[in-house]
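hi! just following up on the protien thing from before. the input was this:
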Amino acid sequence: MVVQTRAVVVDERERCETPLFIVGPHRSGTSLVRRLFNSHPEIACPPESFFIAHYAAMLEDRHVEAGYDGLGYSAEQMRADLARKAAELHEAYRVAHGKRIWADKTPGYSLHLTGIDRLFGGKPRYVLVLRHPGDVVHSIYRRGWHLNDIADPFESAVQHVRDCLASILEFEARNPDRCVRILYDALCEQPEAALAQALEPMGLGFHPAMLRFAEQDHNFGMEDPVIRGTRTIAARSGAWRGLTPAQQARIAAVFGPQVEDARYWRESKT
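and the predicted 3d structure came back as:
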């Protein structure tokens, strides 16, 4: 389904200078958060983009830098040009929907936050979606997803979630003023309060349309098809307890003894 139905010419004077990035390990609830934010009258958030990390990688490529230099561009001019190109489609989507802010929800960007932040000149804000790591591992593992080069599917899921969380938390520690957390369990229990708390540091207020997300049109992209039929916010927690005792022990060894607490992120800042 394509919501944007008309071509848009983006005017440089109306660009969004402080976009949002919604990040979290796969299966953390980012697709739900994306729909909630996309339903806000000031935020336009399409499905996963995937390509922005490649623009960030270009910024670190000495051959790309040499190419820009040969055309008379300084390093800062190169960064600004790559950032404009990386944001162009999001800007068009935002303008087509008559909104002020564009947002991106791509779980894979959890591993590329520093590069993306440099690409956009340290101006974006970040929404960190955090769910109990045991349930995240379980969900990835049960779907048979391989998100790295580790052959064993369970260990692959564990290491992917560990790497994503390490990257997210390190970035948050270095940029606390531009990062906000949305805790999955809190969102499911008190969605309005959780959303209001996340939006407030961005200078935005909660809007009732966010909880009517199922009434809105959302492009689908490559998101889990199950989320397309989701019409309510309902907690799906504790499934990791269905794993074998050895697998549960491995999760506790990697993510700490606080996995025994269902409110893992509510109680822990590590």
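The two ends are 40 Å apart (CA to CA).
The chain has a mean pLDDT of 91.
cheers
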